[in-house]
Design a protein that fits this description.
Blueprint lengths: L1 E6 L3 E3 H7 L6 H9 L3 E3 L2 E2 L6 E3 L3 E4 L2 E7 L3
Parallel strand pairs: 1-7
Antiparallel strand pairs: 2-5, 3-4, 3-6, 6-7
């Protein structure tokens, strides 16, 4: 199951999204997950905290997945 997580802007950095989607507890935890190779974006391994995500991207950590969606304000 993929959880939809809305963002306000057109894009968000991966490190921020990991926290927003509750895939990481905080920035340090996000860094650890990325350095350990435990994060994928659209099925591909990603290690850059600053990687830009946009609506439709799917981030996975282990068996948990979250999709970036445009926030309907």
């Amino acid at each position: 199951m993929i959880e939809n997580v809305g963002i306000r802007d057109e894009s968000i950095r991966l490190g921020q999204f990991l926290k927003l989607a509750d895939l990481a507890e905080d920035g340090g935890h996000a860094r650890e997950l990325l350095e350990a190779g435990e994060v994928t974006v659209n099925g591909r391994p990603e290690s850059r905290r600053g990687a830009q995500l946009k609506a439709g991207d799917v981030v996975a950590v282990g068996d948990r997945k979250a999709r970036v969606t445009a926030d309907a304000d």
